Amino acid sequence: MTVGTTTYAALLRGINVGGSRKVPMAELRTIMEGLGYGNVRTHLQSGNAVFTARGDEDALAAELAGAVERHFGFAVDVLVRDHAYLGSVLDDCPFPAAELEARQLHATYFSAPVDAERFVSVDQPAFLPEEFRLGDRVLYLYAPDGLGRSKLAEALAKPRVTKGVVATTRNWNTVTKLVELTRD
């Protein structure tokens, strides 16, 4: 790592899902290297990249989103988070992550802090045994039957809940892997 740089993860929202908004990871790496980012690596095909750079998270996210849109011709929401933040998401998980299957636990990262008021319309007891808890710019979701079958995840994704923030979800395997990959 170059002196003065930070290791970040970029989380691209809604790419390579269902056959649309294709962003090949090799092209994403090339775009990121063209922006001057160092040590660029991607994880899976669902829009996770690790890199080193100077700058703040919001500026880097905007820069990368702009470059992706210019290259591919469609807008992609991007969140950038550093290792310390990603590690705190892992450490602060209110659910017993070690006892659960990775498909049962998810983290939804937000572009800005969200408060509990945003979620008052979600009748949590109606969705049990599924549950969610809020953290620092993150929502933890326990979905015992997985995200694809989660009625709570569907309710949490409604526009009245997500209005004004970018939200992107990762399963617990990816949450853990991004912490590992961003470790200096």
Strand order of the largest sheet: 2-3-1-4
What is the gyration radius calculated from CA atoms?
Answer: 16 Å
Number of domains: 2
| Shape field | globular
Fill in the CATH topology of the largest domain.
Alpha-Beta Plaits
Calculate the terminal CA-CA distance, rounded to whole Å: 8 Å
Total helical elements: 6
Low-confidence stretches: none
Q: Classify the secondary structure makeup into a structural class.
A: alpha+beta
What string gives the helices and strands in order?
Answer: EHEEHEHEEEHHEH
**Averaged pLDDT:** 93
CATH class of the largest domain, anyone? Alpha Beta
CATH architecture identity of the largest domain: 2-Layer Sandwich
Protein name: DUF1697 domain-containing protein
Organism: Streptomyces fructofermentans
Pfam family, one: DUF1697
InterPro entries: DUF1697
Furnish the topology, listing elements before pairings.
Blueprint: E1 6-12, H1 25-34, E2 38-43, E3 48-53, H2 57-72, E4 78-82, H3 83-91, E5 105-110, E6 131-135, E7 138-142, H4 151-156, H5 159-162, E8 167-171, H6 172-182
Antiparallel strand pairs: 1-3, 1-4, 2-3, 5-7, 5-8, 6-7
Helix pairs in contact: 3-6
State the gist of this model.
By secondary structure, the protein is of the alpha+beta class. It has helices at residues 25-34, 57-72, 83-91, 151-156, 159-162, 172-182, and strands at 6-12, 38-43, 48-53, 78-82, 105-110, 131-135, 138-142, 167-171. The chain has two domains: 6-85, 2-Layer Sandwich (Alpha-Beta Plaits); 88-182, 2-Layer Sandwich (Alpha-Beta Plaits), CATH 3.30.70.
Folded structure, characterized:
- With 184 residues, the protein is α+β, with helices and mostly antiparallel strands.
- It folds into 2 domains: 6-85, SP0830-like domains (Alpha-Beta Plaits); 88-182, Alpha-Beta Plaits (2-Layer Sandwich).
- It is 30% helix and 24% strand.
- It is built from 6 helices and 8 strands, in the order βαββαβαβββααβα.
- α3 packs across α6 (172-182).
- The termini are close together.
